[in-house]
Amino acid sequence: MSYQLPKFRHPELPVNDLGYTRADYEGAISTLCAGCGHDSISGAIVRACHELSIEPHKIAKLSGIGCSSKAPTYFLGNSHGFNSVHGRMPSVVTGAALANRDLLYMGVSGDGDTASIGMGQFTHVARRNLNMVYIVMNNGCYGLTKGQDSATADRGSASKKGDPNIYSAIDLCGTALQMGATFVARSFSGDKEQLVPLIKAAISHRGFALIDIVSPCVTFNNNTKSTKSYEFVREHAEATGTIDFVPMHSEITTEYQPGHAHEVTMHDGSSIRLYKMDESLNPFDRRSAVNVLEEHRYSGNILTGLIYMNLDSRDLHEVLETSQRPLNSLDESDLCPGNKMLLNINASLR
Amino acid sequence: MKRIESVNDFVIKFANVNGTGSASANNLFAKALFRMGLPVSPKNIFPSNIQGLPTWYEVRVNEKGYLGRRGGIDIALSVNPQSMAQDIGEVLPGGYFIYDNTKLLDIRLHRDDISIIGVPLTRICNEQYDDPRQRQLFKNVIYVGALAALLDMDFKVLTGLVEDQFKGKKNLVLPNIHALELGYQYARNNLDCPIGIRVQKSDKVGDKILLDGNTALGLGALYGGATVAAWYPITPSTSVVDAFEKYAKRVRIDPGTGQRNYAIVQAEDELSAIGMAIGASWNGARSFTATSGPGVSLMSEFLGLAYFAEIPTVLFNVQRAGPSTGMPTRTQQADILSCAYASHGDTKQVLLFPSTPRECFDFGALSFDLAERLQTPIILMTDLDLGMNDNMSEPLSWDDERKYDRGKVLTAEQLEAGVEFGRYLDVDGDAICYRTYPGTHPTKGAFFTRGTSRNEYAIYTEKGEEYEANMLRLLRKWDTINEYVPAPIIVDCGMETDTAVLYFGTSEEASREALDHLSAEGVHLNAMRVRAFPFNQEVQEFIERHKQVFVIEQNRDAQLRTLLMAEFEFGPDKLKSVLCFDGTPISARNIRKQIKKHLNSDNVLPLHRDTALLRAGETS
Predict the structure, then answer these.
(1) CA B609 to chain centroid
(2) Where are the alpha helices (H) located in B575-608, listed in sequence order?
(3) Which pLDDT band, with edges at 50, 70 and 90, does B393 fall under?
């Protein structure tokens, strides 16, 4: 186990608006297997946060248990991290986000952590529309316990052990849509050009943003009969389109027209530019997203890219009407009604 | 037949059907007595059901101020034919059975040794009201009116209460007073009033209040500065969060913006509820969850995380009868062990044992200070009896000068100044380390919170010696905790004795009464009320001082006794159990009986030590 990065960096590493280099967003050296998809995702998170010029300490990264949930150690070393309990990251993030609405909450989970033990919490955090980025590093297997099938493994897909999976797969994007998630995307750890802008868009989205990222397990699930292998995903991925993230703060609004490039303004004033490839998908219409997902499931291809986004979503803080001041910054003078009220309460109880 | 005759000292039990609005009428009765200056202790005995099953409301009136269950029923008031056979059977010889004689009593239920009094409640209602719902609701008020006459209560107190209760709603005040009068006049005109039991004004209440423990806890959380409450509905804890919300809506909403200085989330289950509480506390907000036994089982994994990762956590456990779903609407103190050692691995959790609503309020607010100061879960152990029943209590009060103790948290300034930060580094020697909130400083103070082993700088480790050092520090922290938790309350009987009783929580009132009776019989016992785990040094010394200690608790397996034996290595002979686990609050008669049985069988006669020694000498 090594936990110190080599100190050497190129002397002219580019700095962002805050003056930070990408190194300021990196974490400890990964102890995951060489070639693990998760490390590419960590790299994409580092790049997205650096390019968006988010102060590293204004991000909190939280995870559950598993290979995926170890990953937050390997990015954003200047951010607080919380490696919690298996399948329970959503509840911990919910509490944390309620305590301080001013931080960016990045939840990192895996397919076992989300689709099995944590399915309940995953669905409920989606329906509450908690303002967070929920990243699933989805490899279809339990890596840390040596490769058992997970609930996202496709029926018939076989891991290194060779036995085809006999159960039907849970599609996390479809589930999230059903539960009311307001930003749903799928990507592939091997496609950084797609992944980085998606992460940026998810960060800018106000509300629950899921990115289900197929991230092959090189040790247990990267063989020829697996549908979560690098090769299979490269051959079967069909992108909804490409996406550019434009961190501008001028107002841009454009009507959505299929077949063209579109710019869509996000809550924080930045915008995303969509280049659509799949004419049948309108990513601002939930029914359309559900249909396209279902069609791809039927054809056996993997739909990647932005699948759905609701620009008018109200996040949990808005729904609960909580104070704009973070709750963790309030003190006695804000919170304690004092003895006078107790005198009245006592009087009413006699 | 010798009638029970008494003034200001009796037990009355109302037998109703749940879902018929009887609770508010019964409350009216109890509160009227309270306003007459009489100590009362009302207890709801209700089914796990919404409508149609038998429910009882037992009120003890006692001028001496004994508030525990006495045992035995002097007056039964029955408006539920379903439970009538049981209800009439429970009345003590010489007692009174008041029932709705619109339909005459089944001759097979008749008893010669009690007074049977009929009030035609249904007939009066049918004559007075056309609306079926009104007939049902006012029937309850009418019997309260009849009772007022039978017990010689001050009728003005009742009407005054109705006016207070429906302040500003004239359309409700008059019909209720009318119904009270219907019952009152019927009894006056047709029955011998008063019966052998009656009440008169007294001055034994002082400035006390009548309040349920759950409301007091909700207020404690409000005053203690809780901003995040996450919970999952479960009887008997639900009303804790209800109360928190009720008062938060009054005082925590900004009148200008309408924004709330609190957030309440009803979680999908108890796992999630405590996860949210832990997440909020980790991020620097005061947060809590409330639950009961089954919830504690589900929360155990997270409690282990909070213990090991040292995250402040406040959990209010309103205990009910287990195991499993058990008797969900009956009381017990049966989660002592599952909470004290909650979660896998070596864990020890801090427990607080309030015994009155006032202590629910005080300990409730204190929990947040303790959790943040000690960086560990604080589990406040109350129960259904205290939580859901109105208990007579000292009034609530708050010192307006009081500041919250936020514990050891490093600020951005301290970090900037170069203070060495290791999340699990014992800088002060009290085994409590400094923490940082997320977002404090751009480059200093970030760390990784985890349930895995780690070194003093929060870096993952599997080195045995580093793991062990951390576990031993947590044990040293336990000693520090000992200095912060509420000390026991010791009551010296003032006589020389080597025997004592030990009790906690809701066993206090019944124990106090039992000791008074035993004392009158010449058996003098010292007493100690334990108020927290870890047990204070005083607890150990007290037990060591005595040859034998009766441990009174409301569970089958003598859980607190087990805990005492585990923590102090007392032998089983030293600690004798006095137990009640039938789901009803423990009664003074029960305690007295069990203690006397122990004393007789052990040949221990505390006051007559010389005789006992002499006898032992004779046989040897």
Answers:
(1) 37
(2) 588-602
(3) very high
Taking 3-state DSSP, the helix, strand and coil percentages for chain A, each rounded to the nearest 5, stand at 35, 20, 45
Tokens at residue B230, please?
């996450």
For residues A228 and A220, give the distance between their C-alpha atoms in angstroms, rounded to a whole number: 10
- Verify whether the Cβ–Cβ distance B399 to A339 is below 8 Å: yes
Q: Which single residue is written with the structure tokens 């005054």?
A: B160
CB contact under 8 A, B438 and A91: no
Residue A143 lies in a domain: yes
Burial A7-40 (b: 16+ CB within 10 A, else e): eeeeeeeeebeeebebebbbbbebebbeebbbbb
Q: Do B210 and A60 touch (CB under 8 A)?
A: no
**Chain-chain contact of B259 with A321 (C-beta, under 8 angstroms):** yes
**Backbone dihedral region for residue B412 (phi beyond 0: left; psi -120 to 50: alpha; all else: beta):** alpha
Residues of A in contact with B280 (CB under 8 A): 95-96, 98-99, 327-328
pLDDT in tens, B115-156: 999 999 999 999 999 999 999 999 999 999 999 999 999 999
CATH number assigned to the domain covering B489-619? 3.40.50.920
Residue B367 corresponds to which tokens in the numbers above? 């929990």
Q: Does domain B211-393 have CATH number 3.40.1350.10?
A: no
CATH assignment at residue A218:
3.40.50.970
Q: Residue A251: how many CB atoms within 10 A of its CB?
A: 8
Q: How far is B510 from chain A (nearest CA, A)?
A: 23
CA of B489 vs chain A CAs: smallest distance (Å) = 25
Q: With CB atoms and an 8 Å threshold, state whether A350 touches B35.
A: yes
What is each CA distance from A338 to A344, B186, B401, B429, in whole angstroms? Answer: 11, 48, 9, 35
Average pLDDT, chain B: 95
On whether residue A115 sits in a domain, the answer given is yes
